[in-house]
Give the backbone structure.
Amino acid sequence: MENKSLYDYSFKDVSDLLLDNVDALIIVDPAIDAYKSIIRRGMFESFLKESGIYHDLILDLWFHFNDSNEKVSGDYQIFADNTGVFKGKYSRRLKLYLEDGDKPHLVQLTVYPIENASKYIFSMDEFNDNESLQESLTTKKINTIQNSYLFSMYIDLVEDTTSSINVTEISDDVVNYNLKYSDWRMMIVNMIWPEDQEQFLHRTDPEYLKKNFTPGRTSSYDCMMRNLEGKYIWVKLIFSRAQTYNEDDYRYVFMVQDINDTSMELMSTLQKYEEKAIKDPLTGVFNHGEIEKQLNNAIAYCQKNENPVSIMMLDLDHFKAVNDNYGHSTGDVTLKLFSKILLEFASEKKALIGRWGGEEFVIICHENNGDNTYALAEDLRKRVEAYLFPDICHITCSIGVTELKAGDSFEEAFNRLDKAMYSSKNNGRNKVTLL
């Protein structure tokens, strides 16, 4: 177009200039879930088809990770239909990836609803490299500050609306959704760990929020939630009621914070402390206190269930002679290797092992009656007898077995078990006795 004076440009001139410079222009009809491309230039020749499905276009525009073209989990794609509804003009920046490309294209999208036609015009332009670089640097600064927050939105319980929704892993900008809070709540509950869903529904219930949050109050709780990759992670769900002086103004900010790494580290630390509290430091099996608790639990279980539970007590024969003749260091090695045999046995069966004291050990065998446990004990006795221990070569064990009865007290069950074990000792050792 010739270089005209500013005052000589007509409406048609400007219209032609805009059409000559826009990178992509499409018409959308949500009613038939379709779009048609009017203009496709540059990257949009590959990104857009001449015509296509509107739902798929929304997935390509919004539902991929901010730093890659990898699509978010299908569970979250249910929000696509709500994203593609526009009540007025809408504009935002997007990072788009071509199917075979690993470099993002920074794009400005503007949506113009066609009045009384229920259709939209999408106008899209790609920024040049310098603008993209500046945007990338700004984004990195934002992510450094906010990378632990996965999701945020504004809620109005009176209007039952959501707004200003931001999904950090999808975009640094607010995403357009047309969702009622009540609908969002019932959709997102499916992303919560099944055991946490009841609590989520309780804590996000509008009546609960109204009753338990005074203006300005913030509260949070932790649960497991599926992330955009479809994996369950630990998150902190945060609700904060807006600070107003109108008691009937029920507006809230809701945020999801990624605390998975911290939670996993904490649970690992707690597990280490728990193991120290319940494990015997020498052998790695349960200590006396824990196996006694487990034995009480097994007795309580038998009072309520018909499934059998049996217990055995094992005592290494002539173990004092090992310590006296070879030293306590060899004795400790012998106990460790003996425990290893027991742990290998437990891994094959539904069994719990604990060190009762010294060279005595107790094994709880769930879903095994006395006869079955006797046979298991015989197999275990033979394994110990055949094992080649360092320095001492061979050692045997005496085993007592009893099946728990519905009316057993702890003392009755343990006395019967102890009597069975000493019966094996008194009858020549390296034996199994069932009482």
In short: Residues 328-348 form the longest helix (21 residues). Confidence is low (pLDDT under 50) at residues 130-146.
